[in-house]
Design a protein that fits this description.
heterodimer, A: about 800 residues, alpha+beta, five-stranded mixed β-sheet, 26 helices, about 30% helix, globular, B: about 375 residues, mainly alpha, MetI-like fold, 13 helices, flat
């Protein structure tokens, strides 16, 4: 029987509980949640239902279906994160004007390709085909990424120039077709007596099928005969990419691309998408950009400029030339959403959603709750074998193993900038004249006339003697580099950071990574893997040396010829997080021993070559093989690559590692180790379930990455006069807010404005003045308004925030009168 | 089909050693001929599967292009390779592509590989998959198939046995009550089987999982799976209810209707009327005069339906996230993973051949009019 409690007692209890929860939140380390249970659900519609009834907390799949988006928006139980990483275009075959068999290819003419921009109504595609889940796209850069905001004025002007205008398209195409010798007979274009047939290669898996039909219809209206080939990705590949363009197996293809992270420098996209340098395929080899465009794209691709201003000039010109070339016609930037319960907070990458966010695990939590369980639905769970060197790269597997690991630096999911994660700070040295800048304080940037690589830096590896070859040995005449980074790990790093089996991280975990880079690509090594050779050769093209200048605290110097525009991107940490997940020296060693004895292999290529199973460290038969080598290694207190690693790994450390790993294997039944906030409790591959738990020894406060819990996408509103006198002054207020509150001024990079006049041209461009947090003013001077003709004008405002790369656009119309 | 002949006119006393030898020879000859015929049929069937699954070799072109496409895009878009010249990039793509071609056997002509697929399949050397792995990571086709076989059999066999026996016995009961309300109801409900099982599955999920919250949406077991075996077993049972229910709903009415019609036909035979006229009990008539002569058909239906369980159910497994063979085969077809397609097919082909072969002998056992290996008789 329940007893009634006095109200005062209840209030006191509430206060005590709230304080306890608050204290818990302050002292909590690692993950906010106690456990994450991952469940397979292949159907997005079913997943939304499971979210609504509370069976899932998050469905970590980026969905583009407008109907499901409407359902999610309408549900009181659900919310979502938006992402912008994929986009669609038309890829033209530029070969011609005649194919080998004499057929005409109108798209060999740049002006006809350019005119296609006027023929295609991107707004129609966005609204009618994509159901609003997209924005029109004109350029090879993403509207949600920083470069678009940087050059928004140029971009908007070009978007207006190339806005939908079918009559203009018809006029240009007619003119050019006649120049080619074609004739319009009874409304159908003929060339040398035969109708001009366009082969449309249309992908069928998504909205591209309807887009392909729409484009075909427009071409048929102009008098072309369109042969529509509907193909899947695999079926289309031999027709558009690897076939000889001269054979004319397609005229245009409905292409699609994905960006998996916020790209801060999209300058190389011009080089990639428009020049033969982009891809080593027959189609790309057929690209013949105009010499100016070719040079501009090349310079942007190689970062061949000395200042960001110079880059700006090149970039703006490239935007213009890309539309004139139009070997690709960009259609839409797709928008996707990742649905979740309203009471769940989690970081979602602006490009890749929750599944692609590096920091999803440290940020996921239920609102106002410390601990508890979060259930995550995924379209596919435990798809392929896990191992750090050559395991699965499925996005859904990667999402899970990313939660178990961490890196030296963390990527801001909203801007692409990087922050220290395990490192404390860094210094970057670049040669004078290179266009590198920095944004954040944790990195110091220095420009130097020359970077000489020290003679004792490691540059190569001797697999027989098992020792590094130094720069002094290999290059007695000396070696220079374009960039040097020096990373400093914290003084308490080795005390605080532990692997999931309880082993403290050590220098050996860092050094083995560099050894493996060389050893696996060397035929004299017992773990030689020919599939590692090509990428290693590319690595060698820019690698100029590495050196550990201090082991405690750990300081690592890295020399390279590559660099990024952001100094933050030019930091190499050598943290033991590999291409396919985290790896400690001791669990990697078991795989190396098994591979050396040809019982399993890290890569599927070598596994096939040996006729053995591909190494899976979390389940299956290869776990048993690793267990056998664990016994052997424990018995002999084995240290791999002893001539080198023996200098960094003591016998005591090795003994402790093998003991910890044995206990771990006994408890968990697998060999997957990381240093991340979650560890893999158990994988259930057949049941398609994974169970991740909070790593209690993780050193970071749980709230460390809460700043990335939600993107601060600005909202804008423009207020001003409806009528402006030509030659008079005009003032417009721009209100910038986030969730109803003024957007802090120190978090706004700039507020640009453009005035589009009554002729549809950009008449004025400028920057709004800061007034107060959340308020900016556009002040048009008499001189400026004098430039406007009488009629209707549109003021467009572009707000560029610092915390997110997504600019916000808003506009207001006004009439100019004499 | 087994050959049959008219009843022998010889007296039992005249059947001696010679006739036994003759019967044995006849059976051996028949067995060998039948085995060879079935084997050749299997060979042709499996080779056709190999040809079709590979579009007569065109899949090689698709796969080579897909591999080159993936590599070219990855290398072209990666800043890691930005410093390479176009020629170096082309070379790198080609080197990596050649490694992958070698791994997948694409460095050999398809015709050579097709016969190797066939030869290995016939001796049940299923080899390794080219793309897929088992859920636990093995690339052995045997392991991949075996891993999925258990969930598939669990789902399909449970549904099948339930359906088969309930249908047969319900139909038998209805055939006794021809024209009754229940009989008319079963006829009226038969069109419900026009909808496939996954269609019912969606409705069952909506009602019992989404609205009532009584049963799980899908999967084979709770997440995370219960640690004790008993709890695990109960969890699997709970997860079986909806998919099995969907299969049963989609098939039971037409099943009952078909069997009922079948039994009604047998019930109206002259010898059944004669038995009734003689005053035999209804149970005896049912057992001796209806069930017994229809037994070969029932057994055939049972056996052939049983082996179709092998294939699983692609869409139903997808709707219920059931990790079965149907989804595996679908994935394999999408990825052109020939060893898995061939492995799945050869096992089905052998099961079918063995079933057909064994049925010939079973007919002879259950029907005295049937003799194995005699070619001059009448059909059963």
């Amino acid at each position: 029987m329940a007893r009634k409690l006095p109200i005062g007692y209840c209030l006191a209890l509430v206060v005590v509980l709230a304080l306890a929860a608050s204290a818990g939140a302050q002292t909590r380390t690692g993950a906010w949640v106690d456990e994450v249970i991952v469940i397979e659900e292949a159907t997005p519609a079913a997943a939304i239902t499971r979210l609504e009834v509370g069976e899932f907390d998050v469905y970590a799949f980026t969905i583009s279906d407008p109907a499901l988006f409407a359902r999610t928006e309408a549900s009181p139980f659900l919310t979502y994160s938006r992402s912008f990483g994929s986009y669609n275009e038309l890829t033209f075959n530029p070969y011609g004007p005649e194919f080998n068999d004499g057929r005409l290819n109108p798209f060999s003419v740049p002006r006809i390709r350019e005119a296609m921009n006027w023929l295609i109504d991107r707004d129609y595609i966005v609204n009618e085909i994509m159901g609003g889940m997209a924005v029109p796209k004109f350029f090879p850069i993403t509207a949600a990424f920083p470069d678009y905001a940087r050059y928004a004025d140029t971009a908007r002007a070009l978007e207006l120039k190339y806005a939908y205008d079918p009559e203009r398209a018809r006029a240009v195409i007619t003119e050019e077709m006649e120049k080619l010798g074609a004739q319009l007979v009874n409304g159908v274009w003929h060339y040398k007596g035969s109708p001009v047939e366009i082969t449309a290669l249309i992908r069928i898996e998504d909205e591209r099928r309807i887009i392909g039909d729409y484009v075909s219809n427009q071409l048929e209206d102009l008098g072309f005969v369109v042969n529509r080939l509907y193909r899947t990705a695999a079926e289309a590949s031999p027709l558009w990419l690897t076939a000889d363009p001269a054979e004319g197996r397609m005229h245009f293809y409905t292409g699609g691309w994905v960006t998996t992270a916020v790209d801060r420098d999209q300058g190389s996209n011009f080089d990639f998408f428009y020049t033969p340098r982009g891809e080593a395929t027959p189609l790309w080899m057929a690209y013949t950009p105009a010499s100016e465009f070719d040079a501009v794209a090349d310079r942007l691709g190689r970062n061949d400029f000395t200042s960001l201003e110079e880059r700006g000039g090149l970039f703006r010109r490239a935007l213009e030339l890309a539309l004139e070339d139009s070997v690709r016609l960009w259609l839409v930037d797709r928008q996707s959403f990742t649905p979740r319960r309203s009471d769940v907070v989690v970081t979602a990458d602006l490009a890749a959603g929750v599944a692609g966010a590096q920091l999803w695990a440290p940020t996921i939590r239920k609102v106002n709750q410390v601990g508890g369980t979060v259930r995550v639905g995924l379209p596919s769970v435990l798809t392929e074998p896990w191992n750090p060197l050559g395991g699965t790269n499925w996005v859904y597997d990667a999402m899970l193993y990313r939660a178990t690991g961490e890196d030296g630096i963390a990527f801001d999911p909203y801007t692409g900038l990087t922050y220290p994660w395990r490192i404390e700070r860094a210094e970057v040295y670049v040669k004078e004249g290179l266009p590198v800048s920095k944004t954040l304080d944790w990195v110091d940037l220095h420009f130097v006339p020359e970077i000489q690589v020290p003679a004792d830096a490691w540059i190569d590896w001797d697999p027989v003697a098992q020792r590094f070859i130094t720069v002094g040995e290999k290059y007695p005449e000396g070696l220079t580099a374009n960039r040097k980074s020096v990373v400093y790990y914290p003084a308490d790093f080795f005390d605080k950071v532990k692997w999931h089996d309880g082993s403290p991280i050590s220098v050996g975990d860092f050094v083995i990574g560099l050894i493996l880079e060389f050893d696996r690509a060397n035929p004299d090594s017992p773990v030689y893997d020919e599939s590692a050779v090509p990428s290693h050769q590319s690595f060698l093209l820019s690698f100029r040396g590495a050196r550990i200048t201090s082991t405690d605290p750990l300081v690592i110097e890295y020399y390279s010829d590559t660099f990024g525009l952001d100094a933050e991107w030019s930091v190499t940490t050598l943290y033991p997080y590999y291409s396919y997940g985290p790896g400690a020296w001791h669990n990697l060693t078991l795989g190396l021993l098994a591979e050396a004895n040809q019982e399993t292999a890290f890569t599927s290529a070598k596994a096939t070559q040996l006729g053995v199973d591909y190494l899976n460290m979390i389940a299956g038969e290869t776990v048993g093989i690793l267990a056998k080598y664990l016994d052997q290694a424990s018995a002999s207190n084995y240290i791999p690559y002893a001539p080198t690693l023996g200098q960094y790994i003591s016998a005591d450390e090795a003994r402790q590692r093998w003991s910890n790993l044995s206990r771990w294997y006994q408890e968990k039944g697998h060999f997957w180790l990381g240093t991340g906030v979650l560890y893999l409790e158990r994988a259930y591959p057949v049941e398609k379930t994974a169970h991740l738990k909070r790593f209690e020894l993780h050193p970071d406060p749980a709230n460390r990455w809460d700043i990335f819990a939600e993107p601060m996408i600005a909202e804008a509103d423009v207020e001003g006069p409806a009528r402006v006198t030509i030659g008079g002054r005009a003032r417009f207020d721009v209100w910038v807010t986030f969730e109803g509150e003024p957007y802090p001024g120190n978090l706004i990079s700039e507020v640009k404005y453009l005035v589009i006049d009554s002729r549809g041209e950009v008449a004025l461009v400028g920057t709004a003045d800061f007034v107060a947090d959340g308020l900016y003013e556009v002040n048009l001077t008499p001189e400026q308004t004098s430039q406007l003709a009488a009629g209707s004008n549109r003021l467009e405002v572009v707000v560029v925030p610092i915390p997110v790369s997504v600019p916000t656009f808003e506009s207001a119309t006004f009439v100019t009168t004499p | 089909m087994a050959a049959t002949q008219a009843p022998s006119m010889q007296s039992p006393a005249s059947v001696g050693t010679q006739s036994h030898t003759s019967a044995a020879l006849r059976i051996i000859r028949y067995t060998l001929t039948r085995l060879i015929a079935l084997f050749l049929t299997t060979v042709v069937g499996v080779y056709l599967t190999i040809l079709i699954a590979n579009m007569g070799g065109h899949v090689d072109e698709i796969r080579r292009a897909t591999i080159r496409e993936g590599l070219a895009i990855a290398i072209g878009m990666s800043p890691e390779y930005a410093q390479l010249t176009p020629a170096q990039r082309r070379q790198l793509v080609e080197e990596l592509a050649q490694i992958e071609f070698k791994r997948l056997g694409l460095d050999q002509p398809f015709i050579v590989r097709s016969f190797r697929y066939l030869g290995n399949a016939l001796v049940l050397n299923l080899g390794r998959a080219e793309q897929l792995t088992s859920d636990s990571g093995s690339s052995l086709v045997r392991n991949i198939i075996l891993e999925r076989l258990v969930p598939t059999l669990l789902l399909t066999a449970t549904s099948f046995f339930f359906l088969f026996f309930v249908s047969v016995f319900a139909a038998l009961g209805l055939s006794r009550r021809y024209g009754s309300f229940l009989d008319r109801l079963s006829v009226a409900l038969a069109p419900l089987s026009a909808a496939p099982s996954w269609f019912y599955g969606i409705f069952l999920i909506l009602i019992f999982a989404a609205v009532l919250r009584w049963l799980p949406f899908g999967g084979m077991v709770d997440a995370p799976p219960p640690p004790s075996r008993w709890a695990y077993f109960l969890s699997v049972l709970k997860h079986l209810v909806l998919p099995v229910g969907a299969v049963v709903l989609s098939s039971i009415f037409i099943g009952i209707y078909s069997w009922r019609t079948f039994f009604l036909i047998y019930s109206s035979e002259d010898y059944v009327d004669m038995a009734r006229a003689k005053g035999l009990p209804a149970r005896a008539i049912e057992r001796r005069y209806i069930l017994r002569p229809s037994l070969p058909y029932i057994i055939t239906s049972f056996a052939l339906s049983l082996i179709t369980l092998w294939g699983g159910s692609i869409i139903l497994e997808q709707v219920f996230n059931w990790p079965g063979l149907g989804r595996l085969l679908y994935q394999a077809i999408q990825l052109y993973d020939t060893p898995i397609i061939v492995g799945d097919t050869i096992i089905y082909a052998y099961l079918l051949a063995i079933t057909v072969f064994v049925l010939d002998f079973v007919y002879a056992l259950v029907d005295p009019r049937v003799k194995v290996g005699d070619s001059g008789g009448r059909s059963a």
